[in-house]
Automatic annotation (TrEMBL):
Domain of life: Bacteria
Residues of the Leucine-binding protein domain: 49-402
Keyword field contains Glycosyltransferase: no
Record PROSITE patterns: PROKAR_LIPOPROTEIN (PS51257)
Protein name: Amino acid/amide ABC transporter substrate-binding protein, HAAT family
Record flagged with keyword Signal: yes
Name of one Pfam family that matches: Peripla_BP_6
SUPFAM superfamilies with a match to the protein in the record: Periplasmic binding protein-like I
Amino acid sequence: MRNNTIRLVGITAAALLAATACGGREDSAGTTAQGDCGGQQTTGITDTSIKLGGIYPLSGPASAYGEIPKAVKAYFDYVNAEKGGINGRKIEYVVRDDGYQPPKSVEEARRLTEQENVFALFQTLGTATSSAVMEYANQRKIPQVFVASGATKWGADPAKYPWTIGWQPSYQAEGRVYGQYLIKEKPSAKVAVLYQNDDFGKDLRDGFAKGIEGSGVKIVAEQSYEVTDPSVDPQLRNLAGSGADVLLNITTPKFASQALAADAKNTEWNPLHIVNNVSSSMTVLKPVGFDKVQNIVSSAFLKDPSDPQWAADPEMKLYEEKLKKYAPGLDTKTAFYSLGWASASGIEQAIARMKCPTREGLMEAARSLTDVRSELLLPGITMSTTPQDGYPIETLQLVRFQGERWTLFGEAIDTRKESR
């Protein structure tokens, strides 16, 4: 269990953080910071600037995620222009395309750190791709901060990977939430699972399986797919013959749209359709047709920009105003943009809390957040970390699609409490 791992590595992780605090070690280039931070890595940061690098699939099978960095850049442009940067430092943001291919991800990480000389890698997107980068970043002692993936591994072993930390709720936590929901609402559910055959898909599937242990909810069929597959239609046909009354859809956006469309076309099979959070955006649902995705279930941790209940919300109003100003032409109602905005706000909070303006100082700050707000998080959801707990956000809210938007239902679930 994740919490057992956290307890085992706690002492070691705390020692590592102490080593990286102010007055720590020299970097490989022998660069030194000023004052009490001597001997720490200052590549990519000066008194007036910070250089961050992001790696996203701007092309390839997961290119829908390529919209996220547009909003990240807009947020940084807003911070630079209207706040004077973060603690007086303007942010330079460099984005690279890895096509959702792990070898390319490492190549771009090298380019960003060895040629562009970025201070930190902020948001490498994807589980397999970010896993490849994690090995490189930790060998080189380069911050890989707020990874855009919910893989459990980002926080499971801070002693081994002290330079990597996630941001969004873990996939295992998300899977447990769906399991708890079915135990309560459909205690005899028969579940068919469609999942991407990689760490992302397996992580969420395993979390769900653990969440239903000892209950009457059963997995009766599973089908996996590869990101290089042209379609998941064959898998959906196989699952439709399983007799399941629930379909758990663990896919990335392209395949989520295909699965939702295939489910809608099959009038002889009408399961409760649960789609994972990463594929719950309007860019996934709208091409299928809102009338064909009514009452599907998912989870959320961010305010939905398309939901009128947030129209007067100060954070939402700021997001819409500034996104229009600094990224004209982007649809403020698109969830990928609000996600990028929220995550950029998150790294702003971590950078602002650095005691030392160094790479070590950033990791210390990222691992010592206490109930910190990031823009657009749902009410009651904050970022919290410790040296032993590398999961900044672990609270989720169930949502159901009704009409033309997601609606919240039930209570927000703190999966830290649920997993104890």
